[in-house]
Specification:
Elements (H helix, E strand, L loop, with lengths): L11 H6 L5 H9 L14 H26 L6 H33 L4 H19 L2 H24 L39
């Protein structure tokens, strides 16, 4: 492989097997990266933030519905299966988007960018869960848990701590599709091996 070639000229197989430490490819990859929730500060780009939240909610709801329809529920018709799928997708998407919308609205109304806005978003998302499950006690419990989780995530992001950041993982010998994976926490240093002819 030629790391000096323009990444746009590489074939798909070369891109998949290209070491991610190549600077030019890393710059190209970062340009193509989709928008993440905290790419812009809170209070900006609400449309993008809502789209990202809806995407996460849709993915989470799809995962839950696949687990439910394939492992738990016994459906006699396609309509029954699709109504069961919608029963998971709609509330989870509503929870994620309401978290983003309420956090944004609280920020605009209060004029302060702090953890209370995200905690309020977590309370509303947990309330939607309680309505979905039809249990006030469980809705209250999930509201408190999501409020604490939202506040902790906002606080960690403000401090610059990224708990699930995969950008700094050492990928010297390829990516997750390669048989040559480097799972070490530190780079491999100089070996003391000789050829035996010294």
């Amino acid at each position: 492989m030629h790391p000096t070639r323009d990444p746009k000229d590489l074939t798909l197989l070369e891109v998949l097997n290209l070491p991610l430490s190549t600077g030019q490819f890393k710059e190209w990859r970062d340009k193509k990266r989709p928008y993440r929730y905290y790419d812009t500060p809170d209070g900006q780009d609400i449309e993008k933030k809502l789209f990202v939240a809806a995407k996460y909610g849709l993915g989470f709801g799809t995962f839950l519905s696949i687990m439910d329809t394939s492992l738990y529920s016994n459906h006699l018709s396609f309509y029954a299966m699709m109504s069961r799928v919608a029963m998971f997708i709609v509330p989870s998407t509503a929870m994620f988007t309401s978290y983003a919308a309420v956090s944004y609205t609280a920020l605009k109304l209060r004029g302060k960018d702090d953890v209370f806005n995200n905690a309020l978003g977590g309370v509303v998302a947990g309330s939607i869960y309680g309505v979905w499950i039809k249990s006030g006690r469980l809705g209250y419990t999930v509201s408190v848990i999501l409020a604490l989780a939202g506040a902790a995530h906002k606080h960690a992001n403000d401090l610059g701590f990224k708990p699930f950041n995969l950008d700094n993982v050492i990928k010297e010998y390829g990516n997750h599709r390669d048989p040559f994976q480097d799972s070490s926490l530190v780079p491999i240093g100089e070996k003391g091996w000789t050829t035996g002819h010294d």
